[in-house]
Task: structure prediction
Amino acid sequence: MAEQYTTVEGAQVGVLMGSTSDWPTMGATSETLTALGVAHECNVISAHRAPARLTAYCDSAARRGIKVLICAAGGAAHLAGVVAAQTHLPVLGCPMKGWSLDGLDSLLSMVQMPKGIPVATLAIGKAGAINAGLLAASILALSDGGVRERLLAYRREQSERVDKVPQA
Ligand code: RP5
Result:
């Protein structure tokens, strides 16, 4: 059977989200990784609607050279934990905003992993989505000089843009 997920040759980061409805937020993760020159692949794989596909993805990720996984989900937000249970790769979790509790439900679902299987949970919404890309790059930078240089340049440019006096 053909693989039911998208793979990118040379990808170091796998971005997973539970639904296409997460993409308006998670597009910011992809843009951040692209800005840092980090090859990555993006897939929608719901933990509860497509569990077999998720297991197949997790089984292949490390073997294909993926080094970090970023998982976004809203509501019960179990995607990151289910992925972390099926791979030794570091898993960064992005709780999605919205829902009845405006993302607090997603955050608490994701961050409250019982001991033994960690998920590094970021902030709710777009800030967390961008930071997930940056944190993935930091992890890769430990062993990839090119990513390290680009990440340091990104941070230098960010510092230069910081206002020195209050702006109207
Ligand atoms: C989660 O349920 C997804 O990650 C998404 O945040 C949420 C809603 O999904 P849809 O009903 O919009 O497909 O699994």
